[in-house]
Amino acid sequence: RPSDKPAPIKAGQKPEPGLKSVLTICDAHGQAIGVLNAAGLTAFRTSLGSMLLFRFRKTVENIVVFGAGKQALWHIRLAVLLRGQDVRKITVVNRSTARTEDLLSELNSEHVALPSHITVGAFDEGTDRNAALEALVLDADAIFCTTPSTQPLFPSSFLTSREAQKKSR
């Protein structure tokens, strides 16, 4: 019998993910034969939409990804699948160091196996975060924003300045 109350969450602990979306699997007669947690499938489908434009980009050597969840994982995996021979560097920008490390571990695991010529790392803000973030965005050939943040990820001027307009993204 399911519990009426969720387990208490300790300070600093991330809550366990809940079932947010489902896919019902039906047989040839339309009878439900299974239910699948569709969170991973949703992230994959969303990333596929981004790839429609990405695959036509002329330059994709330097990719910046905001976020470190399932969508970030699928954006990276699909970008490498489509244009892996052209990609040289992928930088992940995320608030949570732990989630970023989890994503980087997953990307370096045996079942993902990114090509050895691609460097994947976390954003290093150094002493001046704003200047480092602006330099990162200016240098990017493609930017994937895979986070539901309600705050701006970076100022629009990072893409609209004279220097930024030398490169299309």
Describe this structure in words.
There is one protein chain. Helices cover 33% and strands 17% of the residues. The mean pLDDT is 88. The chain is globular and about 60 Å long. A four-stranded parallel β-sheet has the order 5-4-3-6, sandwiched between helices. Strands 1-2 form a two-stranded antiparallel sheet. The termini are far apart. The chain has helices at 39-54, 70-83, 97-107, 129-139, 157-160; strands at residues 22-26, 32-37, 62-66, 89-93, 119-122, 142-145. It has 169 residues and is an alpha/beta fold. It is built from five helices and six strands.
Short description:
33% of the residues lie in helices and 17% in strands. The protein has 169 residues and is an alpha/beta fold.
Name the descriptors:
169 residues, alpha/beta, two-stranded antiparallel sheet, globular
Major sheet: arrangement of strands: 5-4-3-6
- Proportion of residues in β-strands: 15-25%
The portion of residues assigned to helices is 25-40%
| Order of helical and strand elements | EEHEHEHEHEH
Mean pLDDT: 88
Number of strands: 6
Note the main sheet: 4 strands, parallel
Q: Helix- and strand-based class?
A: alpha/beta
